[in-house]
């Protein structure tokens, strides 16, 4: 049976897929390739049918008759390669990194510093636009919190209704609240910053944006509305009021009695008509039939001239008044009609009905209200042809502009949603074209043109891609040169692409991506050297690891290939790298390992398609799972404990995915899923799983806990605490107490708050839960005990956590021993963690704190090798170099990591080093870059102030 899976998939004759991040080639011809890999025969449709029949046949077998495959020892690698060749062995000539579709600076620190300088001195009414620029800069970073923080700040400082509407909708989209069952687009979440009603209020008040929303409060009766009723009655009865009328408007056979003074007060044109040297100024009766308003509409206009309100009129009458107000420049009446009609917009139907009237009459608030609904329904609203036409066409953009609602901000938001949904669609192209038309300043043009180039590259329209990349370079975006080179390469000009990248490396401070891009256009040793340099300058780039691994597979060194791809998976997991390792493991007949990786891959991207888009990953799971030992849910729980105990997060992720397949919709498992994904820095996938857990919750108290975690993870800590308290009021549970304790411990660090957190965690431990979660709670409780100097209590908690296999407790226990001056015990605990943990970069880093300098350096070198994204080893080495008076080497150590990880603390430390060396200019630059990441960082603010003062003193002398 062991060749069933290979035989099944071998029967597929798959056409060669397009080049992209999925890295597996297909031999469509069935002929033997130059490297000895052969292909199979048959049509694609027929072979897919055969695969489906095979899957169904496997499914029909009874589990009790299942005999797990036993790996054969006599399968030669060459034979296995031939087996795999027909369905896509990895090939180096088809691996290709993406051109990133975001702003990318060749000197990121200087860019951050420049943005901070300009923001520090710009008028308050322009700050919102500066935050939008920060959003564009942070979009390409791995930390989504930086982008969201800028988005919030932009909304807080927004002045006009248009900006508030777009930014509020964008914040809501970023939270993906449309995925929450029972939540509609226009529901108010209770926060003023995202409330659709508060977005329609113009004015600059950044403090109010953080206030709780008051739209759920009971409305107070409007005094003007009461006046309307009284005036309406007066209009119908009373001879005394009749005597006040001194003119009439005649519309058809009807005569509408009015006061000349009241009508004249509506606008300057009416005043001129009724009081200046026009015939109407001398007539008591004026024929108004040809002015496009009905008698009922004119009666309403007369009433408005007395009451200044439209609240009592039907919507169709208000629309007539709006048209009249436009014709005769009645600003007050237009604003009243505009605001009233805007209040009627509540869903897609009303928005689509009223937006045409709003655009026709250039009603700013009405269009804003309709626009808000369309934006909050993205991306689904773009499937409406009328909405798509409005946003995508030049005519639609001009109509929006005439109503004051066409902006770079608007199209930036819409294009991001379109690119997420389908980067290659015509809709995306047209939206990006409109974005380019709305671009006013350099960075906006750079972004719009570069993204158009990326989209055209994906669409294989290489000539147009080159044109747009060239436009982006002309606007100042140097990174787009990589796009030009790629487009030239695709058009067959490989040497020109090489020359372009070679020139870029010569002209600029070299970056990892430059060498990576140049490596595509050379061969042999030169390519190998470029990839090595790329990894040295930026170890987070995945392409060099993938290329080297696939090269090893082509040389039949599969175990070496797995070791190479493990280097990046150890600190940065991605679907394409997991896919690659899965194939290597299949080649080794390690089907269980391959199944683990495919399951983990599906948690990152449930719709991921393997074999260059030829086979859904879940279909491969179906094939692979019948080659390994079948496990029930109880077996899975035991396996999860083992994976958790060995600190194998990817293995744990795969087990939970298996458990969810056995028990779909289990909210508890979905929640655990999200926690593992967060640990692996897969924030988007984690939030998706957490939202699904909330949707599948079977009780109110459980749902509130998940909503609390969603609030916490998106920056709303007070709301998270409120959700936890509400859940506890319904039913005391481990997760509710744990949530409240966790958020409070992150929010407050004083001793009184710590004691309260201890009580909450003790309450949590009294509630039912499994060992995995209780181990985490015990570890958290011990950490708080350490903070309040109760070390013996902390040690007891850590010991209890270790008893139930919470292996990470070794780290906390080591810290407690260290604080008790038991350095040897602390070192031993970390050694135990290193021996037990599958991924142990953090363990090496922490153990370095409990040994002498030489051993610490060794552990930190290992930590950096395993995870180059950890910043402590660089800071430690730099500090040691400074102590040894090797200032230049210390700064170089920090500069090396800042190049691919611009971290606040790294920038602050380098600024302090520059300051100690008497270099105020470099100090100021690094401080400004750090403050761009966090403008409230106290230590950096203090250093920045001193450096500026010193710089001014030097200039004055």
Automatic annotation (TrEMBL):
One of the GO BP terms on file: negative regulation of ethylene-activated signaling pathway
Highest taxon of the lineage: Eukaryota
UniProt xrefs under SUPFAM superfamilies: POZ domain, TPR-like
InterPro entries listed in its UniProt record: ETO1-like, SKP1/BTB/POZ_sf, TPR-like_helical_dom_sf, TPR_rpt
SMART domains (alphabetical): TPR
UniProt protein name: Ethylene-overproduction protein 1
Keywords of the record: TPR repeat
Segments annotated as TPR repeats: 775-808
Pathways per UniProt: Protein modification; protein ubiquitination
Organism encoding this protein: Anisodus acutangulus
Gene3D superfamilies reported in the protein's UniProt record: Potassium Channel Kv1.1, Chain A (3.30.710.10), Tetratricopeptide repeat domain (1.25.40.10)
């Amino acid at each position: 049976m062991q060749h069933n899976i290979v035989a099944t998939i071998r029967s597929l004759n798959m056409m060669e897929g397009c080049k992209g991040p999925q890295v597996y080639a297909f031999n469509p011809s069935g002929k033997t390739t130059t490297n000895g890999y052969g292909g199979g025969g048959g049509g694609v449709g027929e072979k897919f049918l055969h695969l489906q029949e095979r899957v169904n046949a496997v499914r029909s077998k009874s589990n009790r008759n299942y005999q797990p495959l036993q790996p054969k020892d006599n399968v030669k690698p060459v034979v296995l390669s031939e087996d795999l060749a027909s369905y896509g062995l990895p090939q180096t000539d088809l691996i290709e990194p993406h051109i990133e579709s975001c702003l990318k600076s060749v000197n990121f620190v200087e860019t951050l510093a420049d943005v901070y300088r300009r923001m520090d001195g710009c008028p308050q009414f322009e700050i919102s636009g500066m935050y939008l620029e920060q959003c564009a800069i942070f979009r390409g970073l791995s930390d989504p919190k930086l982008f969201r923080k800028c988005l919030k700040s932009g909304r807080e400082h927004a002045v006009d209704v248009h900006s508030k509407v777009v930014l509020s909708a964008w914040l809501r989209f970023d939270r993906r609240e449309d995925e929450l069952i029972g939540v509609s687009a226009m529901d108010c979440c209770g926060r003023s910053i995202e409330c659709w009603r508060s977005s329609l209020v113009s004015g600059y008040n950044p403090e109010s944006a953080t206030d709780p929303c008051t739209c759920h409060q009971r409305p107070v009766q409007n005094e003007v509305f009461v006046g309307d009723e009284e005036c309406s009655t007066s209009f119908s009865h009373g001879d005394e009021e009749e005597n006040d009328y001194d003119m009439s408007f005649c519309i058809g056979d009807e005569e509408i009695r009015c006061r000349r003074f009241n009508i004249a007060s509506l606008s300057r044109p009416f005043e001129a008509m009724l009081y200046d040297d026009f015939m109407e100024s001398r007539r008591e009766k004026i024929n108004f039939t040809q002015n496009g308003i009905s008698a009922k509409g004119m009666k309403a206009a007369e009433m408005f001239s007395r009451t200044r309100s439209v609240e009592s009129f039907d919507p169709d009458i208000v629309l007539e008044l709006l048209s009249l107000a436009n014709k005769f420049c009645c600003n007050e009446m237009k604003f009243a009609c505009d605001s009233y009609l805007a209040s009627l917009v509540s869903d897609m139907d009303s928005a689509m009905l009223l937006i045409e009237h709003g655009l026709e009459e250039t009603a700013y608030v009405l269009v804003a209200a309709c626009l808000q609904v369309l934006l909050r329904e993205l991306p689904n609203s773009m499937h409406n042809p009328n909405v798509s036409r409005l946003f995508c066409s030049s005519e639609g953009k001009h109509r929006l502009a005439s109503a004051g609602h066409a902006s770079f901000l608007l199209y930036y938001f819409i294009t991001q949603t379109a690119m997420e949904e389908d980067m290659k669609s015509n809709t995306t192209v047209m939206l990006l074209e409109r974005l380019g038309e709305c671009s006013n300043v350099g960075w906006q043009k750079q972004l719009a043109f570069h993204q158009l180039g990326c989209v055209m590259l994906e669409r294989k329209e290489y000539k147009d891609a080159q044109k747009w990349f060239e436009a982006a370079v002309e606007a100042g975006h140097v990174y787009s040169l990589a796009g030009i080179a790629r487009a030239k390469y695709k058009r067959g000009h490989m040497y020109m692409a090489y020359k372009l990248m070679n020139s870029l490396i010569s002209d600029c401070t070299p970056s990892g991506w430059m060498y990576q891009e140049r490596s595509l256009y050379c061969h042999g040793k030169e390519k190998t050297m470029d990839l090595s340099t790329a990894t040295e300058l930026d170890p987070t780039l995945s392409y060099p690891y993938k290329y080297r691994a696939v090269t090893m597979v082509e040389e039949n060194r599969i175990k070496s290939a797995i070791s190479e791809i493990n280097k990046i998976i150890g600190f940065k997991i991605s679907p394409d790298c997991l896919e690659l390792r899965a194939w290597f493991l299949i080649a080794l007949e390690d089907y269980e390992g391959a199944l683990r990786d495919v399951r983990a891959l599906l948690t990152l991207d449930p719709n991921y398609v393997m074999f260059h888009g030829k086979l859904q990953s879940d279909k491969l799971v179906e094939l692979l799972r019948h080659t390994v030992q079948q496990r029930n849910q109880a077996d899975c729980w035991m396996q999860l404990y083992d994976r958790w105990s060995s600190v194998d997060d990817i293995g744990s992720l795969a087990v939970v995915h298996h458990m969810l397949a056995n028990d779909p919709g289990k909210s508890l498992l979905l929640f655990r899923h999200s926690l593992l994904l967060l640990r692996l820095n897969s924030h988007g996938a984690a939030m998706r799983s957490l939202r699904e857990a909330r949707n599948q919750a079977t009780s109110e108290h459980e749902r509130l806990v998940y909503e609390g975690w969603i609030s916490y993870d998106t920056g709303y800590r007070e709301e998270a605490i409120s959700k936890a308290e509400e859940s506890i009021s319904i039913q005391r549970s481990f997760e509710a107490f744990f949530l409240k304790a966790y958020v409070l411990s992150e929010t407050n660090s004083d001793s009184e708050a710590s004691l309260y957190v201890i009580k909450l965690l003790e309450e949590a431990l009294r509630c039912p839960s499994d060992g995995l979660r209780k181990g985490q709670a015990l570890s958290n409780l011990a950490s708080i005990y350490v903070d309040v100097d109760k070390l013996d209590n902390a040690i007891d908690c850590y010991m209890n956590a270790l008893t139930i296999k919470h292996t990470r407790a070794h780290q906390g226990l080591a810290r407690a021993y260290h604080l008790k001056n038991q350095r040897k015990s602390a070192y031993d605990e970390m050694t135990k963690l290193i021996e037990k943990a599958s991924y142990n970069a953090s363990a090496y880093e922490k153990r370095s704190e409990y040994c002498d300098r030489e051993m610490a350096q060794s552990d930190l070198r290992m930590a950096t090798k395993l995870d180059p994204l950890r910043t402590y080893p660089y800071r430690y080495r730099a500090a040691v170099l400074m102590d040894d008076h090797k200032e230049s080497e210390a700064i170089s150590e920090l500069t090396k990591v800042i190049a691919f990880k611009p971290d606040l603390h790294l920038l602050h430390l380098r600024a302090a080093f520059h300051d100690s060396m008497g270099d105020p200019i470099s100090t100021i630059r690094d401080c400004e870059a750090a403050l761009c990441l966090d403008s409230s960082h106290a230590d950096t603010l203090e250093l920045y102030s001193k450096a500026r003062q010193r710089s001014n003193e030097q200039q004055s002398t």
